[in-house]
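Give me structure tokens for this 414-residue protein.
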Amino acid sequence: MGKKVAAVISLALFLGVTLASCTDDKNWSFVADESYSILSVQCNNPILIKRTQDSDYLRQGGKGIEAAGTDDEAVSIRTLGEDSGIDASKNYNVTINTLQGSDRVKMKAVTSDGITMTLPDRPDDLGLQFVITPDGQQSFLASDLGIWSVDASQARKITPDNYNSMTYDVLAEQSAELYQENIVRWNENVTPDPTSTKLAYISNKHDIYNDTNALFVYDLTTGMESISARSGNANYMLEGWLDPDTLLCMKITEDKTEYVAVPLDEEEIPLKMIGSDPFVYAVKDGMIAYAEGLGSPEIHFAQYLGTDGLKEIKSVKLGWQTRVRGGNNGFSPDNSKFACLYIPEGSKDTRYIQVISLTENKKIKIDSLPGDSDFLIEFYWADNQTLLVVAGKDYQGVALESTWSYDLSGGEKQ
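Here you go.
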């Protein structure tokens, strides 16, 4: 997209005009010549965070953008920035301890729909894990040394400094003696539960000698840390929450890899999935989407039934291969649809999106590219009928990115 065209689009967006795309597929709407991701909190309107890029088509500002739907029912997608139209206080710095010393992180308090959220000013440049609860009211920063709660203008460490009287430093010394390197994982992949009252994460601090991951849960209401799943010869990898009291994990041993449900107060439950090497793409509200292997063309959907395991709901073949992006949840907010990147049979040099209805025997193929884009990179759910899609373009060897929305209500159903 040339800068002249981009400038015209920028002016129209600034004036609040809903734009059609340059493609024949009229369900595309242009958002911005830069890359955005959606903040996943329970707000009435989605909020976009600008992604860090090496290069953009054209930087632009604006208080809000009408992105998708008809002129009368356009979806308001709001960006976080100085001119966001969202009530944001001035930035402030908090201090987080890391292995390299003290890290000063620039944060901001943002108020939207009556919820005050604490967010990093530049989330892509953190070097730490940022976590926000689904209700948007609690924010955390996690380093190798622990988890900090961040609110108002301060950061407070909430997780214990030791486990079984062993500090991180002591375990790091033992690790150096055993492995000649530091392999301590104190709290990795911090994941909040659906009720915003617990944090789950994995760690090997319970058994540095065998270097196996166990599953830990920190209760935000009691301040207590507990170990929910461990095995002397198995590694647990956290996939997500099946429900407020049950986690989904990949369990890896020398002879097999399997998925297990881990209730917080009961024994783990092995889950039988189709395929020789199944791979989970998404989990939400008891629903699991998985492929028979990473990249396999067929996606299976199953419902978690507690001690009865999984009930297969349906399976759909998407194309030649499927693709998954870390941090992208394929399930729509109401769990009625699932979206996935796929590579079609006849065009193996690009990626498109398919949206599968979980309540009807229908799917929508998004097999068009917006504007003059060359490929689709990733997507986010803006609402139950709108996808926010980051598209890419190869410009003289530089990958440029732009953000578009896609209106599923007008998509081609099959």
